Amino acid sequence: MAPPDAMLEVRDLHAYYGKSHILHGVEMQVGEGEIVALLGRNGVGRSTLAKAIMGLVRCEGQILLRGKDVRGLRTFEVAQAGIGYVPENRDIFPTLTVRQNLVLGEKRSRSRQKPRWRLDDMYRMFPRLKEREDTAAGLLSGGEQQMLTLCRTLMGDPDLIIIDEPTEGLAPLVVAQVGEYLKTLKARGISVLLVEQKQAIALDISQRVYVMGHGQIVFEGTPQQLRADARVRQEWLEV
């Protein structure tokens, strides 16, 4: 299954932590308005790929956003170019309120009169954030902090969002809310690269799937093709 016109294209990407060579020639694409899942066991390089795209680790190769190479840009420049990033550590400002965190994430743009996303949009997706609007973010539960991180990134009006392990440690109800959030992004034309370990949610909402092993892509296909490929699942995904 060929992706739509590429929003993000990674070509022959190698990444390093010090002298350790983590990614070995990764090739992948995320199309316009597409949700792509990146699966794999812990330690295979999935989070490193996300960080490499965001300019957080040393890498070689090409990282193309709408055909323009953003490799080598500083992280804030990558964000300004249109890539949002939700790290797995739920990066929030703990002493600021929920509302203040969201407002800080808002993109100031002269090119668009009306932003695509407003506070009310965030509160509709996650009503709990509205209830906790004046609460310091550091006092939120883990699930609430994840909701806040997802929404604050979205307030930056990205064209592509990279989300690293968004459902880790969350209750099933919150996991379901995160799934609806991702479907909302697709409906609004936002591209998503979803780094996940849980196959169920990833295969349910994605159009295409990559599986990573030993710093390389070992499978590319549709969720249906991955479900039908017992060998790949046994060798690269199942514990």
UniProtKB/TrEMBL annotation:
<dbReference type="GO" id="GO:0015807">
    <property type="term" value="P:L-amino acid transport"/>
</dbReference>
<dbReference type="Pfam" id="PF00005">
    <property type="entry name" value="ABC_tran"/>
</dbReference>
<keyword id="KW-0997">Cell inner membrane</keyword>
<dbReference type="GO" id="GO:0005524">
    <property type="term" value="F:ATP binding"/>
</dbReference>
<dbReference type="InterPro" id="IPR052156">
    <property type="entry name" value="BCAA_Transport_ATP-bd_LivF"/>
</dbReference>
<protein>
    <submittedName>
        <fullName>Amino acid/amide ABC transporter ATP-binding protein 2, HAAT family</fullName>
    </submittedName>
</protein>
<dbReference type="InterPro" id="IPR017871">
    <property type="entry name" value="ABC_transporter-like_CS"/>
</dbReference>
<dbReference type="GO" id="GO:0015658">
    <property type="term" value="F:branched-chain amino acid transmembrane transporter activity"/>
</dbReference>
<dbReference type="InterPro" id="IPR027417">
    <property type="entry name" value="P-loop_NTPase"/>
</dbReference>
<feature type="domain" description="ABC transporter">
    <location>
        <begin position="8"/>
        <end position="239"/>
    </location>
</feature>
<dbReference type="InterPro" id="IPR003593">
    <property type="entry name" value="AAA+_ATPase"/>
</dbReference>
<keyword id="KW-0547">Nucleotide-binding</keyword>
<comment type="similarity">
    <text>Belongs to the ABC transporter superfamily.</text>
</comment>
<keyword id="KW-0472">Membrane</keyword>
<keyword id="KW-0813">Transport</keyword>
<keyword id="KW-0029">Amino-acid transport</keyword>
<dbReference type="GO" id="GO:0016887">
    <property type="term" value="F:ATP hydrolysis activity"/>
</dbReference>
<keyword id="KW-0067">ATP-binding</keyword>
<dbReference type="InterPro" id="IPR003439">
    <property type="entry name" value="ABC_transporter-like_ATP-bd"/>
</dbReference>
<keyword id="KW-1003">Cell membrane</keyword>
